[in-house]
Amino acid sequence: MSENSTCAVVTGGSGGIGVEISRLLAARGLPVAVTYHSNADRAAALVEEITAAGGRAHAARVDLTDTDRVATWAQQLCTEFGEPSVLVHAAGPHIPMVHLSKVSPATYSEHLGAEATAFFALVHAFLPALRRTAGSVVAVTTAATDRYPVRDGLSAGTKGAVEALVRGFAAEEGRFGVRFNAVGPGMLTDGMAERLMGGGDLDERAQAAAMSRIPLGRFGSAADIAEAVCFLASDKAGFVTGQKLNVDGGYTV
């Protein structure tokens, strides 16, 4: 990925999107450290898969809303595994499809903390290392911040704060050679969308309505998101910072 690369850090590494990102980064030669919240078995399987293919991987359970834990883990990782030149934030809570009028202020505050505050704490913890490696940060957000779908405001209204931080950090950290960008997934057949479909939040009628708004006429996959993330993380995007790339089949056109 980069001549200065030491490792990549992927939060949410046991999720559908996080797994694909981790696989691709490892395939392109980077040691990968992933975090998980509860799915230890899937994280362990990912580490085993990468290791079996000749790569180097590590997994740790990290509550990203615990800022002290994030700081301690980041310091330990940099010492024992290596300083990251790539940091990918692909973690986030399960967000149900719900009208904003049905969301309590307490619930919104909780989700904002799990999204924006967690991202801020993550960047804050790794920023000294990222400056030393002239690293790249990519946040996985949502296409919904650019074209709002009804009942998805809890996602757009919190991930939008992450995107604002991406632009802010990009403006301030460019002098150190650190780049910040975001990738906005549209409707996917896996990842969080798969959970929404399986849980009934997106029934067949809702899926058909969503499909009708996508010019390419299909849903994407976690692998599509991984390709975009790895491009922005690589030297091929060395003059790209403060940007968001929607991977949505044209939904936001």
UniProtKB/TrEMBL annotation:
Entry-linked Gene3D superfamilies: NAD(P)-binding Rossmann-like Domain (3.40.50.720)
Pfam name, any one: adh_short_C2
Family recorded in the similarity comment: Belongs to the short-chain dehydrogenases/reductases (SDR) family.
GO MF assignments: oxidoreductase activity
The organism's taxonomic lineage, starting at the top: Bacteria, Bacillati, Actinomycetota, Actinomycetes, Mycobacteriales
Protein name, as recorded: NAD(P)-dependent dehydrogenase, short-chain alcohol dehydrogenase family
UniProt entry keywords in alphabetical sequence: Oxidoreductase
InterPro entries membership: NAD(P)-bd_dom_sf, SDR_fam
